[in-house]
Amino acid sequence: MYFAIASARRGDTNLIMGNIIGAVILPATFVLGLVALIHPIHVNGSQFLVGSRIFLLAAGALFFIFSATSRRIGRVEAVILMLVYVAFLAFAYLTAESGGL
Predict the structure, then answer these.
(1) What region holds the Sodium/calcium exchanger membrane region domain (predicted)?
(2) Which of 31, 66, 76, 87 is the most buried (most CB within 10 A)?
(3) What is the DSSP string of 40-81?
(4) What whole-number distance in Å separates Cα of residue 33 and Cα of residue 39?
């Protein structure tokens, strides 16, 4: 995260994106793979999987639309992306509460 902030101060947007994406993808996939090596993961609840894919596609589409139209992600776009994340968290919580996770 330090390098992303330092890159932002210098205005190096490509380095920012690489650092942020790498900081999210590497730990998530590494931890998931490590857990699966120790004990196989059985996923119950196709409702959660379908919903997760929809949120992933929506966030990706919004990101590419925002970055393609103005060539930058400003505060308004960032708030919209964070709201999509909050909606996903609410969806995951409600799905888990109903036994679908």
Answers:
(1) 4-93
(2) 66
(3) ------HHHHHHHHHHHHHHHHHHHHHHHHSSS--HHHHHHH
(4) 10
Q: What is the pTM of this model?
A: 0.58
Query: Can you give the pLDDT at residue 8?
Result: 73
Q: Measured between alpha carbons, how far is 47 from 24 in angstroms, rounded to an integer?
A: 24
Q: Mean pLDDT in runs of 10 for the chain (101 residues)?
A: 72 72 78 87 72 87 84 85 91 77 53
- Expressed in percent and rounded to 5, the helix, strand and coil fractions of the chain are 80, 0, 20
C-alpha 21: how far from chain center:
9
Where do the structural domains in the chain lie, given as residue ranges?
A: 1-42, 43-101
